[in-house]
Amino acid sequence: MKKVILAFDGDNYSQGAFEFARQMNEIEPLLLTGIFLPFTEYANLSTLVSQTGLVYTVAQGSGKDIIDRNILKFEGACRKNNIEYRIHKDADDFALAELKTETWFADLLITGSESFYQDAESKTINAFLREILHSAGCPVVVVPEKFEFPQNNILAYDGTESSVYAIKQFAYTFPFLTKNKTYLVYSKSDLEDTLPKQANIEELVARHFTDLTVTKLNFNPKESFDTWINFKKGAILVSGAFGRSLFSRIIKKSFTTNIISDHKFPVFIAHR
Amino acid sequence: MKKIIAVFDGLKYSESTQNFAIEIANNSKAFLTGIFLEDFTYTSYKIHDLVYKEGVSAKELRRYQEKDVETRDKATLLFDNACKVAGISYNIHHDRNIAIKELTHESIYADLLIIDSRETLSHYQEEMPARFIQEILAGTHCPALVVPQTFLPIEKVALLYDGDPASVIALKMFSYLFAFLKHIPLEIISGKGWYGEMHLPDGMLMRELIKRHYPGATYTMLNGEPEKAIITHLKRKNENLLIVLGAYNRNTISRWFRKSMADTVMKELKCPVFIAHSK
Which chain B residues touch A165 with a CB distance below 8 Å? Predict the structure, then answer.
């Protein structure tokens, strides 16, 4: 891991996201790029969302001051913790497209999870985070405000190419986490005892993760997964679930979205 | 990098694929799987011959088939021995179904695929790169290393950068997978004709990233038609190069307007080419 982007939206300063980056820097020094997305983005978003019936009021005027304050806060925190940093804020119109370009030239994007849906009334994740997750050119870690730095890895495997891709990317991006206790979890309510392509996936994953347990959760996938994951303290969830075909599941609160919304674990998401 | 798949045609065993695969597996302490393609539609004899020589007796046909089995066994044995001598962990898969489909599937569960650039899986001489290689590169789910006929240890890496995100993503993948080459000299080569200006597209972001992965990287900007200029520039090099390229563009538009740079490089230069896809 060499270059990491930390994305903040508008007035929300995610302490959790910064803390995650800080702890990564302790393990291996990195270059941290702070990206501050202004309110104009919210304005775009409001038109986008209002088509579905939600109305946004956008505080244009006060936004800039808050962003400037957040930048100062970020700078101070980086200096205090000896993190090499850059700040990218392209004036008032740091569009989502710019963030997308930045992600091509980075190894990882970290962002806070809480700020992203506090504006929406429903518990589903907001369109903005969804857009970031969908278009990023590097893997993304979504971090809740309160979390423990990962001591366990939970690899969500659903038999698709997309989930295998995410697992591989996780191993490349976080080589220092591959020695931790790792669970390869397959959650589907079928009656088969084996995982899809069990031999193949085990052959691959066992070489990347030295301490591996393969678990198949039966019953209702969502409920059993939620119960099961509650017992795993200090975990990071690895998921490829934001791939195109699975995209619609987000609306239906796929388990990844639920984990993010329930403020529990950092979630690692990668897709091609 | 932990799992490499090396692709072999058992009827025409590529020693170069073997040597590159073992060298890389050894250095990155990876597990090597030798995949022997035994596509049932592919044999050393031609169906044409069987039919036109006034038919072939069942006995004769069996003799042909046994000869193929023997040749393939010999190839497997060569791989087996080479891995044992090198002291790496390995296994062997025999894929007996349609080759492309099997390979694409195996590549989901691998970190890198290695294949000889001359592999055709047919009897016919084809212009390089063969259709078979093109299809593999277009379909693979993991990055691929296409190796030349002779093995030479890698001394320098060249990234062809045309401002397309695909080439940046390829370089990131190369850096993750070939961690043992992190101190190797890297040259980033760009052509003016690609975007009309004399500076790198997204230059600042690019340098910021490259500096972290390869602090000593150098940048070269070439004039003239990029395809030609790059090939000429690379041919002048004395070191054994490895070339990193972005996505193998096979969508309709790029096929019509511009021949893939990857094709040209594979045809003109005798060095390994690392290709990674993005979206």
Answer: 108, 141
The answer to whether the Cβ–Cβ distance between A137 and B30 falls below 8 Å is no
* B93 Cβ contact partners less than 8 Å away, ≥ 6 residues apart: B33, B34, B35, B36, B106
Those residues with Cβ within 8 angstroms of residue A220's Cβ, 6 or more apart along the chain or in another chain = A189
**Residue B92 CB: number of other CB atoms within 10 A?**
15
Give the angle subtended at the CA of A93 by the CAs of A90 and A96, to the nearest 5°.
95
Is the separation of the CB atoms in A139 and A236 below 8 Å?
no
- Nearest CB to A104: which of B110, B168, B212? B168
The region that residue A139 occupies, defined by phi over 0 for left and psi between -120 and 50 for alpha, beta otherwise, is: beta
Strands B273-275 and A108-112: unpaired
Phi, psi of B36 (to 5 degrees): -100, 115
Higher pLDDT, A8 or B251: A8
Burial class (CB in 10 A: 0-12, 13-18, 19+), B129: buried
Interface of A with B (CB under 8 A): 2-3, 30-31, 33, 86, 101-102, 104-107, 137-138, 161, 164-165, 168, 171-173, 175, 197, 200-201, 203-204, 207-208, 272
- Chain B contact set for A133 (CB, 8 A): none
Is residue B10 classed exposed, middle or buried when 0-12, 13-18 and 19+ CB atoms within 10 A define those classes? buried
What is residue A93's three-state secondary structure? coil
List the single residue in A33, A104, A161 with the smallest CB-CB distance to B165. A104
- For residue B167, what is the enclosing H or E element? helix B165-177
- Contact between A45 and A95 under an 8 Å Cβ cutoff? The reply is no
How many CB atoms are located within 10 Å of the residue A89 CB? 17
Reduce the secondary structure of A105-125 to three states and give it as a string.
CCCEEEEECCCCCCCCCCCCC
Q: What are phi and psi of B197, to 5 degrees?
A: -115, 165
Residue A244 pLDDT greater than 70, yes or no: no
- Cα–Cα distance between A141 and A116 in angstroms, integer? 14
Residue B147 burial by CB count (10 A; 0-12/13-18/19+): exposed, middle or buried?
A: buried
pLDDT per residue over A183-233, tens digit each? 988 766 556 667 788 888 988 999 999 999 988 766 555 566 666 666 677
ipTM surpasses cut 0.95: no
Give the number of other CB atoms < 10 A from CB of residue A91.
Answer: 7
Give the nearest chain A residue to B108 (CA atoms).
A161
d(CA A185, CA B229): 50
Disruptive mutation site among B176, B178, B206, B210 for chain A (greatest number of A CBs within 10 Å): B176
